[in-house]
């Protein structure tokens, strides 16, 4: 007896394989932190992440476009965004030592690839044959991913800053095993000034992509409904995120904003963007069943 596999089945299988790959990379990364004084991602680990990213990318492609339609949902949106963000992280890791960040991203990769396995449901987006719609979706996911990485980068900076304050305190923490692992976690992280430059590089790229997403969204909305900016949750929160990052970049240029001010604005802008799509899709799909 044969079995006919649909694109959804293939997407679920590939997502499960990618989750296993991210889990293995998480274990390897933590073992490196626990055993090496200066943990860095070796060439074998980078190659392993590249292979997992290929599997993850195929999983997203099969789940979103495998049956010829354009399908999207809460879990699949998170998976696609994390995939794009991890691709950026992999490319950045070729030039900058950011081993500490991978210890956060690999577990997130596990979660992001398990979600479509647990919640495979999605909806087919109307007018999937529209070229503008596909362009808008690609730009929006790229912007979402870049800003997600920027938010994680901001959290890494906050942790590094807190560790510096702990070290300079009069009563530093006792050298327990967990404290030693925590210290080694940041041994390969660049100085805060380098991290700050990387953060604003990510924010600039994310802001440009988000601007293009807003413009293409206006074109799509105008052509489909005749309304350029419908006052729904997604539009309102997206514009709030765009304004937040625009104000942050303006404040950086005019008033020299940096440090904790920049971190707070980054996380607020990310929260707005998270609510713009993921939050509203979760409410519609799993609470309101719409």
From TrEMBL:
<protein>
    <submittedName>
        <fullName>ABC-type uncharacterized transport system permease subunit</fullName>
    </submittedName>
</protein>
<dbReference type="GO" id="GO:0017004">
    <property type="term" value="P:cytochrome complex assembly"/>
</dbReference>
<dbReference type="InterPro" id="IPR002541">
    <property type="entry name" value="Cyt_c_assembly"/>
</dbReference>
<feature type="transmembrane region" description="Helical">
    <location>
        <begin position="233"/>
        <end position="250"/>
    </location>
</feature>
<feature type="transmembrane region" description="Helical">
    <location>
        <begin position="72"/>
        <end position="91"/>
    </location>
</feature>
<feature type="transmembrane region" description="Helical">
    <location>
        <begin position="202"/>
        <end position="221"/>
    </location>
</feature>
<keyword id="KW-0472">Membrane</keyword>
<keyword id="KW-1133">Transmembrane helix</keyword>
<feature type="transmembrane region" description="Helical">
    <location>
        <begin position="131"/>
        <end position="156"/>
    </location>
</feature>
<keyword id="KW-0812">Transmembrane</keyword>
<dbReference type="InterPro" id="IPR052372">
    <property type="entry name" value="YpjD/HemX"/>
</dbReference>
<feature type="transmembrane region" description="Helical">
    <location>
        <begin position="262"/>
        <end position="284"/>
    </location>
</feature>
<feature type="transmembrane region" description="Helical">
    <location>
        <begin position="103"/>
        <end position="119"/>
    </location>
</feature>
<dbReference type="Pfam" id="PF01578">
    <property type="entry name" value="Cytochrom_C_asm"/>
</dbReference>
<feature type="domain" description="Cytochrome c assembly protein">
    <location>
        <begin position="50"/>
        <end position="287"/>
    </location>
</feature>
<feature type="transmembrane region" description="Helical">
    <location>
        <begin position="12"/>
        <end position="34"/>
    </location>
</feature>
<dbReference type="GO" id="GO:0020037">
    <property type="term" value="F:heme binding"/>
</dbReference>
């Amino acid at each position: 007896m044969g079995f006919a596999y649909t694109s959804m089945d293939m997407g679920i299988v590939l997502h499960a394989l990618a989750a296993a790959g991210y889990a293995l990379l998480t274990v390897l990364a933590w073992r490196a932190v626990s055993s090496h004084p200066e943990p860095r991602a070796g060439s074998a680990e980078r190659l392993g992440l590249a292979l997992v990213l290929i599997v993850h990318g195929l999983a997203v492609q099969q789940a979103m476009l495998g049956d010829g339609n354009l399908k999207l949902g809460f879990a699949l949106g998170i998976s696609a965004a994390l995939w794009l963000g991890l691709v950026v992280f992999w490319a950045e890791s070729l030039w900058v030592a950011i081993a500490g960040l991978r210890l956060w991203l690999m577990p997130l990769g596990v979660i992001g690839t398990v979600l479509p396995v647990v919640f495979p449901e999605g909806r087919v987006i109307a007018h999937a044959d529209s070229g503008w719609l596909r362009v808008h979706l690609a730009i929006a996911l790229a912007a979402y991913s870049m800003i997600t990485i920027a938010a994680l980068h901001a959290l890494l900076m906050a942790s590094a800053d807190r560790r510096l304050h702990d070290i300079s305190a009069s009563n530093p923490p006792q050298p327990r095993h967990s404290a030693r692992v925590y210290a080694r976690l940041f041994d390969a992280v660049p100085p805060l000034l380098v991290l700050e430059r990387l953060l604003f590089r990510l924010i600039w790229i994310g802001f440009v992509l988000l601007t293009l997403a807003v413009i293409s969204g206006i074109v799509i909305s105008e052509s489909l409904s005749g309304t350029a900016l419908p006052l729904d949750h997604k539009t309102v929160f997206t514009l709030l995120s765009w304004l937040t990052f625009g104000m942050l970049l303006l404040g950086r240029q005019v008033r020299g904003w940096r440090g904790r001010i920049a971190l707070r604005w980054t996380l607020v802008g990310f929260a707005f963007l998270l609510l713009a799509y993921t939050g509203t899709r979760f409410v519609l799909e799993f609470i309101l069943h719409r």
